[in-house]
Give the backbone structure.
Amino acid sequence: MQTVGGPAAGRARAAHGRPIDDISNDKVNEAQPTDPARRDGAPPDADTGRPVERPPAEPGPGAGQEAGAGAAAGPAAAGPQAVAGVSDRAPAHATAPDAELFLGVMSGTSLDGVDVVLADLSAGAVRLVSHLRRAFAPELLTVLSALQASNRDELHRAAVAAQHLARTYGMAITELLHRTGVEPGRVRAAGIHGQTVRHRPDAGYTIQLNAPATVAELTGIDVVADFRSRDIAAGGQGAPLVPAFHAALFRAPFARAVVNIGGMANVTGLPALASDLPVVGFDCGPGNVLLDGWIARHQGKPYDAGGDWAAQGHTSARLLDALLQESYFRRAPPKSTGRDLFNPAWLDRVLGTCDPDSTIAPVDVQATLTRLTAVSIADALRRFWPHAHEIVVCGGGAFNSCLMGLLAEECAPRPLNRSDLYGVAPDHVEALAFAWLAREHLARRAGNLAAVTGARGDRILGAHYPK
Ligand SMILES: Nc1ncnc2c1ncn2[C@@H]1O[C@H](COP(=O)(O)OP(=O)(O)O)[C@@H](O)[C@H]1O
Ligand SMILES: [Mg+2]
């Protein structure tokens, strides 16, 4: 059995499993199949069969944006402490002349900030070199939140926010490269997703705020951006775009599902390697977005760390049933969604009809919303990808222990593991996907899977802004 890129053993972790450090030198080759019966423990090193120890990393400027220190949950539980004095420098493969360095920059619907990865994509592998996360400045967060719905002077506000975003991306890229000791000239391109403020494939558009020209100007690096619009132009949903990357990374001799729990949740169904079935992928509904909104309203916190608050409550069957009436859950793929549908106003509407007197305690609403995410994902798997022998979870929701417990319960008896068991940290996967999509763009290869998005065909995604 072989797994390349070990778990985050020894890496500094936040209280509930999210890394405190935001920079790491990790080796992430294509994840190899694991024994589905193996539920816990560190994946073994490919050569020695021993668990892979990865170098822990130093917390850097801004690292305090994560929760406090503690032990990780899940199979790749790490030691609680950061270890000082470990170099951030790029590993040898990344400085070799044949390295193919790409940046991936992801800021998702959670609005929790930006994840930047530097990856070496040479020799058909995906090897993480380093990672950095930065929260948005409070004023940027405020304007991005406001721009999720129509409001006054929004063209101007969106354009200004896009410039602010681009500076945030540019600074994060520059800092990551500086700390890793990599010159911008060595990076082939940065794949930048941008910040979704509208997703309306039904109306022929999706809007990811970004200013790629500004990022190219600030960093001296080629930028590939606007990945979704070509798929929509070809009649597709423009989303999800990660399934092709999930297939490259996680496909195995047996069928798997990859579940990405970001603001929204999306599922990729990966047929067994020998199978002729197509890869399946779709957004299944809310991931963290409702959980984040509810705890922000009641406790002023950006997210329910570890799902600790939800774990103190009880599911309201009445509310859960009412939430599950949403027809989106039953719609067959291709389908994609966003804050346009699942947002606090949607929740308030359901609460208004099913609990007009507010008899359900806030903590029980949090518990019910967490259950909703788990149930809607498990239902989607049952309906649209029942073949999975094993479920791999990535995205920030993988750090919510309460949610992971409920999801494991709903998906039983199939094993469910965090992606770090397969060599890729949950919060690196999507950013790596955009580094990979930038490489596919430069190679003039398609990045979408038409069978997933419903487009008329596979298309080269993105627009190129030379440095
Ligand atoms: N330690 C944690 N405990 C609970 N939830 C977490 C934790 N860390 C991250 N999250 C959740 O993950 C979200 C971010 O996930 P992410 O994959 O970045 O989503 P997106 O792609 O939409 O930005 C946060 O908003 C939060 O809800
Ligand atoms: Mg995010």
